[in-house]
Inverse folding.
């Protein structure tokens, strides 16, 4: 077989994509557009990874990720590319709340990841005490706080504005994305706009106000987007598009070994763990390829790269993950008629509750209200970095503690007509200070191996658009349409 991208040659190479989550499927889709042959190998029987379409009481719901950032274009573009454009839908309400200091309080407007640009709405919200507000105001008098090459988000903001704003606003907002510890999370990786501003040495509140005013002037359209029927439809539609373009997808096909040979790769599949079937373990136990895209979480990537890139493997093995659980409940709509307005609420860990957030899904997503007019879907999430003890509870107990917290937060006394618990072990990679340097080291090591690329949630951001972006980058580099990051003669998939 010819190489993936021998200059002047027709592209006929074979690329194996390992991992059938959104990153792997997006990479496969992109690669097929470049004219190569593609095989996707997915360990489980289900495609989509952390995107999962399911149902409760016969109504479609998302059991994993449920919304995607629309200000970054990659995910929305992918949805349009695979025919879901007409089903894209922004949230019906963007009004959210914070359950803190003994009550449900409106999320103050005019912030960037909880960092306020304007103290008036913050004061009116009651999220921060008088003392906390006075401390924020000192931002303007303080000398610049050094940030160096990277800094912990929580520590930096606490130095500028005090701990209260970190604990009651930044932490729950960041928790909604990374489920991470704000005092360890990299500011450069998690909120690059704040990092750039922090480097300038300006008062933080002043810079944030400028950012929020600029964003308001741009009127860029919805910040977030969902899909009628659930975000879980996205990977399935991408998989359909991959198959339609001639790509092969095997589920129940866990890859156990990745070996670089003289002229490409051999990829070993453990057929004993699959259940067989049309798409799955009927395929050969060893697949040969000209190039490989590794789109699996860090522990699996570390195992698979141990032989061909020990240095990348060691870096990957050091990445931490957090586990979480989602409790989805269906109520009779009439039973929750008096539920608070808005799309749900976040819960700061300092308040010592079990749930970290609740989404009023039937309010947030118009399509869900239409699909089940008599039911009201609501979900809670549980589990944070180094605070996963509650995940040891059984499913019934997680439903019970969710209802107890909802009772206190919003006075919900109704019992659900149905509930389900979905556990996401190792759901989210953590981005501690220095994470971007680690990612750069991983990519540099990987690029030394001809015909190998990596993508997924642990590289450029955990959100769906970032995962799709990293998949595009991996695919484009293999196809040779991007040369900037490639060393001459390495990593382009070229071989003798
Ligand atoms: C509960 C939860 C809610 C979230 N909510 C949102 C949200 O609303 N919006 C948002 O933007 N992001 C959200 N995220 C984050 C986002 O969904 C994920 O970061 C993203 O989907 C990860 O995609 P991925 O393809 O990188 O990895 P994954 O989805 O983890 O896919 C990796 C795939 O690789 C497979 N695999 C592993 N090992 C092997 C092997 N050896 N051989 C073959 N296959 C293998 C796995 O089975 C899996 O299917 C959420 C995450 C979680 C956990």
């Amino acid at each position: 077989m010819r190489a993936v991208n021998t200059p002047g040659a027709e592209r006929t190479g074979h690329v194996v994509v390992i991992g059938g989550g959104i990153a792997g499927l997006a990479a496969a889709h992109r690669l097929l557009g470049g004219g190569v042959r593609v095989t996707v190998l997915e360990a489980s029987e289900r495609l989509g990874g952390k995107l999962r379409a399911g149902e409760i009481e016969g109504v479609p719901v998302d059991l994993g990720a449920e919304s995607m950032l629309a200000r970054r274009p990659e995910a929305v573009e992918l949805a349009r590319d695979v025919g879901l454009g007409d089903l894209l839908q922004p949230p019906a309400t963007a009004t959210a709340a914070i359950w803190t200091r003994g009550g449900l309080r409106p999320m103050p407007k005019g912030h960037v990841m909880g960092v306020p640009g304007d103290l008036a709405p913050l004061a009116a919200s009651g999220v921060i005490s008088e003392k906390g507000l006075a401390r924020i105001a000192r931002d303007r008098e303080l000398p610049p706080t050094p940030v160096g090459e990277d800094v912990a988000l929580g520590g930096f903001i606490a130095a500028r504005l005090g701990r209260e704003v970190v604990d009651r606003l930044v932490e729950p907002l960041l928790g909604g994305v990374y489920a991470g510890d704000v005092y360890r999370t990299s500011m450069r990786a998690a909120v690059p706009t704040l990092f750039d501003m922090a480097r300038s040495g300006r008062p933080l509140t002043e810079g944030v106000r400028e950012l929020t005013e600029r964003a308001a002037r741009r009127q860029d359209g919805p910040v977030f987007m969902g899909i009628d029927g659930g975000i879980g439809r996205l990977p399935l539609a991408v998989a359909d598009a991959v198959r339609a373009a001639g790509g092969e997808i095997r589920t129940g096909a866990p890859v156990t070994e990745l070996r670089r040979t003289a002229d490409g790769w051999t990829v070993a599949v453990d057929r004993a763990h699959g259940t067989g079937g049309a798409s799955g373990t009927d395929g050969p136990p060893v697949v040969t390829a000209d190039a490989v895209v590794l789109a699996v979480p860090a522990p699996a990537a570390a195992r698979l790269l141990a032989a061909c890139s020990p240095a990348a493997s060691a870096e990957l093995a050091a990445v931490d993950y957090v586990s979480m659980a989602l409790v989805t409940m269906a109520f009779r709509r009439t039973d929750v008629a008096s539920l608070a307005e808005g799309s749900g609420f976040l819960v700061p860990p300092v308040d010592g509750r079990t749930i970290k957030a609740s989404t009023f899904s039937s309010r947030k997503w118009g399509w869900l209200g239409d699909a089940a007019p008599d039911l009201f879907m609501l979900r809670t999430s549980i589990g944070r970095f180094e605070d996963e003890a509650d995940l040891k509870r059984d499913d019934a107990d997680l439903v019970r503690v969710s209802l107890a917290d909802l009772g206190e937060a919003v006075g919900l006394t109704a019992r659900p007509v149905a509930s389900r618990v979905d556990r996401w072990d190792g759901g989210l990679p953590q981005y501690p200070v220095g994470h971007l340097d680690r990612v750069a080291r991983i990519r540099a090591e990987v690029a030394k191996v001809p015909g190998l690329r990596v993508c997924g949630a642990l590289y450029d951001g955990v959100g769906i658009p970032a995962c799709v972006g990293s998949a595009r980058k991996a695919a484009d580099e293999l196809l040779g349409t991007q040369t900037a990051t490639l060393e001459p003669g390495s990593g382009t998939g070229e071989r003798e």
Remarks:
- The pocket of flavin-adenine dinucleotide is lined by residues 18-24, 41-44, 49-51, 64-68, 254-255, 295-297, 300, 324, 326, 424, 427-428, 456-457, 462-464, 467 (CB under 6 Å).
- Residues 163-178 form the longest helix (16 residues).
- Confidence is low (pLDDT under 50) at residues 5-10, 275-280, 482-496.
- Residues 116 and 259 are 51 Å apart (CA to CA).
